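Bench notes, bay 3.
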Amino acid sequence: MKFRWIYNSDESLPITEQIKVSRNYPDSFFSATFADIPDISLMKDITKAATRIVQAVKNKEKIIIFGHDDLDGITATYILFDFLEKIGSQNHFYYIPNRLIENHGIQENFIRKVKNEKFDLVITVDGGISSYEAVKKLNEIGCEVIITDHHLVPEKIPPALAVVNPKQHDCKYPYKMLAGVGVSFFLVWKISQLLKTEFDFNYFFWVAAGSVADKVPLNGVNRILVRESLKFFHDFNDSTFVTLTSFYSFNSTISSQLGFINFVTKLFSNGREKDGEHKALRILLASPAEKARLIEEMLLSLQNYESQINNLKIFLDNLEGIPDYGFVYFDENNEIPYEFLGYCASYISRNNKIPVFFMKNLRGKLVCEARCTEGFNVVETFRFCKNELNQFGGHKQAAGFVAELSQKDKIREKIYAYLSKNREIVYRHKILTVDAMLTVSQAQNLSANDLDVFQPFGEGNPQPVIVIKDFMPETDFPKLNFAEILPPLDKKEKYFLACNLVGNNLYPLDFAKKQEWKNYEN
């Protein structure tokens, strides 16, 4: 057993009831609808931001949206950009920074662009909360700034006209874990209320896609936004959505619809360009004929992306010497492209349930992407090292920093010191919470549709962990659909095998010999 197993249900119950007991979900988890979304006016500064944007559109002011180059940032930019056009703006633009050639946050080149092209208003989406000095400079050149973000709020908040971020300590909005696209959508919603106009129903799809892609907790408001959007999947008629369906077919099952969202996520993750452009955003704004051509181009990039992922998995599976309380890795031989740094940290963290920090040299700077599982906070780790860092930010379980390359050894030393000091927190959370126990014959009849009531799965609502009892590899392996090769097991020994069910395939997570099962916790 790699992990400590906990099981708090009743194996005599049907699988859905076992999971409900295990997770103790309230009835609202299954019944909440769009009508249950809390009043968006409770979001700090949202009315102030919406009012300023309405004024800017009416006065024909020059507006630029500063986005982010992942799907959350792309969809957040698109929804706001498209809505500004629909309410009459003819003088608005966007800028998507390319993380491969620009550092995180608002940089000098963007400030120069704003000054030279005489923009009146900058609106950030999915970022900006850590850009204090940049916002100060924008103010100095006479440009007002509205920040919309969802990342953790630093001690020093930028001096913007309005800061819309539910994580602000004095924000009264009750749900704090929105994606960047969720915040952007709420801003659009508030503008539509002020103007007494409707927003495009298709925005719900892009909110769902961006939220799933950004791995925000899929509970509360996020679950409503995603789950309810899936109910109306076949009603969406957005031209990009329709064009994409000709490249990926799906049916009425939630699993199939989420598969389509995952396809869009991977496809649109490969469109980074220079000068503030992004191919995914160009697709969203293009004519139908142009959309199809650009998507075909991006499919070629997707093939290369998937090949790189497979090669990285092989590389990561062969890494040795990973401590059981946390891991810091510097890509000395430049084997990991920067855009995959977060993926690598996530892969090792998920498989070992430890905090993981992947660092590399990017254009002469030390950059890092960190990931961790429940119970740990990588941002607090960065705060422990803040004297050595130029900039850091993100979420508790997914964050990054930029520092001078000369600080590499000092930072690694301090991170390991912090990990060592907090190793008990890591050990305490190296658990596998078992949601259901099944016999081999019950597992044979299990399908993804049996779990649809709990979908969508993600952070805050993970794939259920199912333990197959009395599993004998020699006789039972051929009876079940395994997506991966099993770990080396004694063919004639009986095991308790912990798995996830993804689609109709089982993914092994951990195993215990039958005699070890007595050690599980009730």
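Next record in the batch:
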Amino acid sequence: MTAWAYAPEAQPPVSQDWDIIATRPAFGSLFLTLAADRQCPHRRFFLGCLYLLAGDAVRTRFQTMPEVSLRALTDEAMSAGEAWVSTWAARTRGMVRTPESFDYEDWCDPRGLASTPT
């Protein structure tokens, strides 16, 4: 995944739903690192994966990712000191506090919140 992330001309390994296939809680820290790296050509993709990860966790009432793990990931994002991932963390914390604010298109569509990173 990291090799693809830094290959500017590389197409996604899977033509459809690559974000859904790739987004797994185990990759959360990697997604943070790549989304925070301004030198990563595909950083916006990884930011989208973070939004999908958080949105899916709240949407499923933390069946796909335990709340404690999501909170730890937001802590990690805030300590990174990078605007895109800090904004993601703040938005995620807000959604966790008010889960009824979850909107599928905002959180799970690449044209949603990930398209306005700050």
